[in-house]
Amino acid sequence: MLDINLIRENPELVRKSLRDRQDDPAPVDVILTLDAARREKIAAVEVLKSERNAVSKEISQMRQADERQAKIEAMRAVGEKISALDKELAEVETELTRLVSVLPNLPDERTPYGKDDSENVVLRVEGAQKQFAFAPKPHWELGPALGIIDFERGSKLTGSRFYVLSGPGARLQRALIAWMLDLHIRQGYTEQYLPFMVKTATVFGAGQLPKFADNLYKDHQEDYYFVPTAEIPLTGLHMDEVLDEASLPRHYTAYTPCFRREKMSAGRDVRGIKRGHQFDKVEMYTYCLPEAAEAEHLKMLADAEATCAGLGLTYRVKRLCSGDLGFGARMTYDLEVWAPGCDEWLEVSSISNVGDFQSRRANIKYRPTDGGKARLLNTLNGSGLGLPRTLIAVMENYQQADGSIVIPEVLRPWMGGVDIIRGQ
Question: Residue 247, Cβ neighbours under 10 Å: how many?
């Protein structure tokens, strides 16, 4: 969430940010109007309360009953005015909070301007695309032929965009998750096993509400949301806490299933397992001092890249432009792996510097070692990596001419001696 003081003191900066993001800047004017009304009502209430306090002292010293009663009646009217103003103030504050909470974060000055994802900047490509002596197949052909992906039973169980991983396919997915968690632990992250459902305040604190309410699955009886990413509970882990500066930075990693109402366009991403309402992901998350955020961002990028490199995948690093930047992000690097069967680059990680956007919403601060007052810290997040796209890349890059799939060496300890998946 943006600081109301920033909006009040530098509204044009916020308007420019919205224009750069291809958003409407008009809400800024509404927010300024509401903020002015809020301050006027607060001042009016304070004047009336001060008057009531002063008269209350006079009443306590009055000897004449009729005069005292007249003052009491007058103060009753003042009390009614205060109650009415308090109600108006609450309504203004509710609407003001709602409008401020749907404003996105300000892009970092290094985030390039761009209208949409076509203007993201490719910084570098790591590794050469694998060359095959045969036409590589997409995973939606490889998986069913090997008996490791079952689209029909997934659809039977739930519906469109669901699937079943079977036998070595399920084990390969589990191996990827276990290997990535162990890798991140070696990189200095502390693993967390988190609830897969969280309350409304947790989702709001991470920046998913109210803007993305339509994309979330919710248990309305219990007021629980299924997590769309482990970023949500990892943000909430220290909600309403003050951490000691000496304990920072804090690096966390977690595996969760993720649930999102994907709004898929007809004809786009309709084949295979690339996009669905349920998927698995290993997340990296960092709490740090504001001045350490840039270095931590580069660390997280390097740590995510290590997963791609460890799997022997060709990947590229992109810097997102302003028009494709996530709601809470100031600057984001995307990692995309090459999938030769799909014949496309697949995004497997977005590593974002969020600044104090989430910590302000979730009220997460740190206590300086010099004894100063508590301050907002910075948070960063990134996938390390997201599935099933990593699974797709492994299947398609390690396929053989006979349709079998070689297991990458780093995953074999979790495969129970299986080093190649053959037809069942």
Answer: 10
Per the CB < 8 A criterion, the answer to whether 98 and 38 are in contact is: no
- d(Cα 332, Cα 317) in Å, to the nearest integer? 10
Element housing 242 (H / E): strand 242-244
110-126 per-position pLDDT tens digit: 999 999 999 999 999 99
pLDDT digits (tens, 9 = 90+) for 223-244: 999 999 999 999 999 999 999 9
How far is 285 from 303, CA to CA, in rounded Å?
11
Instruction: Report how far residue 57's alpha carbon sits from residue 250's, in angstroms, rounded to the nearest whole number.
Output: 54
Going by C-beta distance under 8 Å and a sequence separation of 6 or more, which residues neighbour residue 160?
A: none
Q: What span, in angstroms and rounded, lies between the C-alpha atoms of 75 and 295?
A: 59
* Separation CA 143–CA 273 (nearest Å): 10
Enter the DSSP assignment of 256. E
Phi/psi for 113 (5° steps) reads -70, 140
**278, 145 in Cβ contact below 8 A?**
no
Length reported for the chain? 424
